[in-house]
């Protein structure tokens, strides 16, 4: 209500609250206000509100090292053109659906998606405690707002950790310091498809026909039919349980100091 563009205030506000160890109660308070205006459980924390932007900035600041140890090895591997997935033929023409489904490129994409997904779901021990505390608050606020929806407690967390954190870092690794430069067109295309796959796998619930039909690329619908297995859903559920728990974790030895101010 005070700032004309509230997003200009988000970054300094988050840094200030981090310094004073007040970020978790603040996020819980603004998230609760956000939820009052949320009418449908399946749209929870999908917009760009003050609450979601604060959590976004918090994850960028606190989760840098977490991203590095989880995703950087795989992102580096995708960056090699001799390994990278080609969506265009050597002549620059889009390859046909049959070519994509029956030849090596689809296998390469499956390999990368499997690897990124596996690294994410087993990374909960490395998730910073502050992120876990925030996710714990969001999870319980969502369950309180929609008590008759057993899935909402998971989608409240996955909408951040998968859609706004891992998926964004995969598609734009240079903005998270996972790569020194913007990836070339071929690598960027590969990373975009991997990111879409991670978003879909991270969405709580099964891969329904309606969800599959949301892909613009027809071949992605066919591709995702290979992921319609319960083990993927169970892996996501366990991961979300772990990162939204306040139970003490074993020290991972991977934490790094967070820089709130420079100069």
Gist of the model:
By secondary structure, the protein is mostly helical. It contains twelve helices and no strands. 60% of the residues lie in helices and 0% in strands.
Q: Layout of SSEs?
A:
Blueprint: H1 7-19, H2 23-36, H3 50-62, H4 64-78, H5 97-102, H6 104-121, H7 129-145, H8 152-171, H9 185-202, H10 209-212, H11 218-224, H12 230-243
Helix pairs in contact: 1-3, 2-3, 2-7, 4-6, 6-9, 7-8, 8-9
Mean pLDDT: 79
Rg computed from alpha carbons, rounded to a whole number of angstroms: 19 Å
How would you name the CATH homologous superfamily?
GTPase Activation - p120gap, domain 1
Helix-strand sequence: HHHHHHHHHHHH
Helix content: 55-70%
Structural domains: how many: 1
Structural class, please?
mainly alpha
Q: What is the approximate shape?
A: globular
Count of strand segments:
0
How many angstroms separate the termini?
31 Å
Proportion of residues in β-strands: under 5%
